[in-house]
# Entry
Amino acid sequence: MRMSGGSRWALRAGVGLTLAFIYIPLAVVILYAFNESRLLEWPPPGLTLEWFDKAFENQGARDALWASLKAATGATLLAMLLGSLASLAVARHRFFGRETISFLVILPIALPGIVTGMALNSTFTEVLDIDLGLFTIVTAHATFCIVVVYNNVIARLRRMSESFEEASADLGADTWQTFRHVTFPSLRTALVAGALLAFALSFDEIIVTTFTAGTDQTLPIWIFSNLSRPNQLPIVNAVAAIVILLTAIPVYLAHRLTRDESVTGGTGAAGATAVP
Amino acid sequence: MVAVDSLDLEIAQGEFFTLLGPSGSGKTTTLRMIAGFEEPDTGRVELGGRDVTDLAPYDRAVNTVFQDYALFPHMTVGENIEYGMRVTGVAGDERRRRATEALETVRLPGYEDRRPGQLSGGQQQRVALARAIVNRPRVLLLDEPLGALDLKLREQMQVELKSIQQSVGITFVYVTHDQEEALTMSNRIAVFNDGRIEQVAGPTELYERPGNAFVAGFVGVSNLLERDGRRFTVRPEKVLMFDNGSKPSGVHTEDGVIRETAYAGMITRYLVDLDAGGELQVVRQNSEAPSADLGSDRGRKVTIGWRAEHTVAVEGEEESN
# Structure
């Protein structure tokens, strides 16, 4: 599309401002992680890797990282299972209340975290009487992780012609064989992309976690509680830089997996996925 | 909404049977009921004397060639063709042997390792056919399989499909909205309209003796006239055209005026307004070079005629479009 010089300039400025708005603060945090001084001086007097050493040696940070990885892995696995089942049901079957279910599955991502957190907290402690810990964090995170898996998989299913599955059944494959040989290979990349996003979402979640973690500390909670302690600040900056990296990787991979893919036509975009 | 109203069809073993009709007439739904993708509300589907109405698609000895081919994009051509045998537990050696054979039948030998995405539309069509016939079904269902191909390739595939059908001896049930395709390939044709069957007949009978106005119009040009309270149709190529004034014997003649002409290479079509009311399409073969300016024929007075035995009395309404 051709644009006038003025609107092109305005668009460029808009994109530039947006990116600057998002990434300059992140760059500042990463820069301070290498700051020689304990104080937040600008510009930093010199650069050092000392805080990363300290961060790796810090037992609290290591435990928190380990707890976050466990929680994110658990929530992701749960979301993959439930999210793909829900998307298959909604995309491939007609039943009473289908649209309602689709809406109810997506809703949690939009609900304020504080409301979800409160609700889960009272359900866990008052109604179910379970101790807060890893299990409750995983369950709580799964409520919104399901949404990203569900959305990714259902988008793929809607683009994928149903005649593939019909052709499979027509050629003699029962329901399970059709899923294993035809549906699943086409969904695989969408499922992985959804899982990576779910992992990233869970890994840095703090609000719902605060209500469901009990005495366990995940990495975001550890960062938050150490932020106010001046002598810990450089270590917190180093940990924050690591978190930025750990979150960016899965999001980048998910983005690569889902772009330029066609599963509707006969082209071999899904060609990289051979049948087991 | 009823896609298919009551219908009663009996298709013989080894027959090339076509379901012909406009879109939305119920022919594809009928095909999908035979395949098992749709369940009839009432009535039964029998295959070789066995009731298969309650069987799932994978339990029916029926295979389908889909309109969009539905070749699995993540498998090679060979894996696609072997798929049906693999899921039903045919041994690997036999699978490969039969796949090779099937590819030879559809004239694509050595294509096992290609991906569907690397093939042209015509080649994908052949692979879809090979994937279906390799399972030796009792009935092969084809849902407008040539719809996506261009005219030349379509005509070539019509001839090939017919010869493949004769060599493998499988019953073909073929869905199309193209009357010429139906006439060319079929042993018998069922004409669908609005979820009902209007007529079941062989190609010649269907064309020469259409059972009603819809069939006359859908299979060919309707050319309906009403004379002395009798409604009948006469095919355009059977209408004779004479220069104004001549009256040969044994032929019913009427006067009229040429309203439109359309030159189509092999033939020229004329639309003639009759003085006694109504219009007729007349086709003449261009066995001699036509006058350079066909437009000059427009408005010319002519006498046209037909033999009584070439008229067919019809009832009912014409196709509205």
In short: Chain A touches chain B at residues 161, 163-164, 166-174, 177, 181-182, 185-186, 263, 265-271, 273-275 (CB under 8 Å). The longest helix of chain A spans residues 59-92.
